[in-house]
Write a structure and sequence with these properties.
Layout: H1 3-34, H2 39-67, H3 71-94, H4 99-120, H5 123-127, H6 133-160, H7 174-191, H8 206-215, H9 217-248, H10 252-280, H11 282-302, H12 306-334, H13 340-368, H14 373-397
Helix pairs in contact: 1-4, 1-6, 1-7, 2-4, 2-13, 3-4, 3-7, 6-10, 6-12, 9-12, 9-13, 9-14, 10-11, 10-12, 11-12, 11-14, 13-14
Length: 400
């Protein structure tokens, strides 16, 4: 294991999480609250970026598998990510009347951000030895979680007391986070060298690539399971602040502190459980994680006492990071050697599709109870129920 490349790889994950969380948190509020634009503008940007990624990713991943070259594409898309986020930040700071242009650019910024992972994630197979994949994946996931915490904490002064230009505001948080992303991402982009020799192989069609991946039954069932449990977990994460507000009436300060604590616990859990998964079995570990998450969702939906739920929230955070680090390592373990990038691309695509289905299920449940406390608790139970087929499919993925 090349520790230098692991450090560079983790630093990049740390860097991109800073700009991501800052824009998710503050650009949405700047657009809808400060500029008075419809809320669907922001959600449309997220949906459009996912659609673009779903269209482009299968084609680009085939090119990665054909050449083995990942760093060149990562450099290109990182520059595009920086340029588009920078453009949005400058418009928000100096030309807020161009909110529509900022929204369009934000769409392409999020698309470019997703494209970076198409090249970044397969590097795991180059950096980590087979026996330590979950542990190394956990280190990257931990860096991502810590980066989100750092991004939230560093943005607070720019929103409330200081600014590089003009007065403190939500818009003032965007430029510093973009510049910090560029500075911290640069070491990987400049110093990383491919650890596998370049190869040129016959490029299969998308249909042939999909058939080859899905013909490998363990990988197919893992991706199907991932679609279901990432659906539940991401929908929970996106609606967590609203859940706290509607069901438990907690303040924004408590929400922020609890979210930061959960992210930190997730960063620790990603490394600790990743190491245990390498030792005792990644597939078995992921099954246990999903089983515990089923219980956690049931508790979220039935326990009314916030004081009792706080330690459960923190424990859930500890188990949130490992879900992604262990599942990512399993995909790398099961991927056909000539289709590593394509396998990871469908792993990310499953997550993108989950951002469509999960909110629909959540919204249907909420609608039945008129945005009541009971509605949000029932929605949590619905997310827990998604864990049942996810576990069933994961058990089918176990190689006999």
């Amino acid at each position: 294991m090349n520790r230098k490349f692991l450090a560079l790889w983790s630093l990049y994950d740390f860097a991109n999480s800073i700009v991501m969380i800052t824009f998710l948190f503050y650009f949405s509020q700047w657009l809808v609250i400060d500029q008075g634009k419809p809320g669907w503008w922001y959600n449309a940007a997220l949906i459009a970026s996912s659609v673009l990624f779903i269209i482009v990713a299968p084609v680009m991943s085939r090119a990665i598998d054909a050449t083995g070259n990942k760093i060149t594409g990562l450099r290109i898309w990182s520059v595009v990510t920086f340029a588009t986020f920078l453009s949005v930040a400058l418009i928000a700071q100096f030309a807020p009347t161009l909110a529509l242009l900022a929204t369009v650019l934000y769409t392409f910024a999020m698309f470019a951000y997703l494209m970076c992972f198409l090249y970044f994630t397969p590097m795991l197979n180059d950096i980590a030895p087979p026996e330590k994949m979950a542990y190394v994946s956990g280190i990257g996931q931990s860096a991502n979680g810590i980066g989100q915490v750092v991004g939230l904490l560093l943005s607070i002064p720019f929103a409330t007391s200081i600014s590089l230009f003009g007065d403190p505001s939500r818009a003032a948080t965007l430029l510093p986070s973009t510049l910090l992303f560029a500075i911290l991402a640069l070491p990987l982009l400049m110093m990383y060298k491919e650890t596998t020799a370049l190869r040129v192989v016959a490029s299969a069609s998308i249909k042939e690539t999909i058939s080859a991946i899905f013909a490998h039954k363990p990988l197919f069932y893992v991706l199907l399971s991932y679609f279901l449990f990432s659906d539940a977990l991401l929908t929970f994460a996106n609606n967590f602040p609203l859940f706290l507000e509607v069901v438990h009436k907690v303040s924004d300060t408590i929400k922020s502190l609890l979210t930061a604590s959960i992210l930190l616990f997730g960063a620790i859990g990603a490394v600790v459980i990743g190491k245990l998964a390498d030792r005792y079995g990644r597939m078995k570990t992921l099954q246990y994680l999903l089983g515990v998450w089923f219980v956690i969702f049931m508790l979220f939906g039935t326990v009314d006492s916030f004081a009792i739920l706080v330690p459960i929230f923190l424990f859930a955070g500890f188990l949130f990071g490992p879900i992604w680090s262990v599942s990512r390592a399993i995909v790398g373990e099961l991927a056909p050697p000539h289709l590593v990038a394509s396998s990871y691309s469908y792993y990310v695509l499953a997550e993108r599709f989950a951002t469509f289905i999960g909110p629909i299920v959540w919204s249907i449940v909420i609608t039945q109870f008129s945005d009541s406390s009971m509605g949000y608790q029932m929605a949590m139970i619905a997310m827990g129920l998604l864990m049942i087929p996810a576990i069933v499919y994961l058990r089918r993925a176990v190689v006999k």
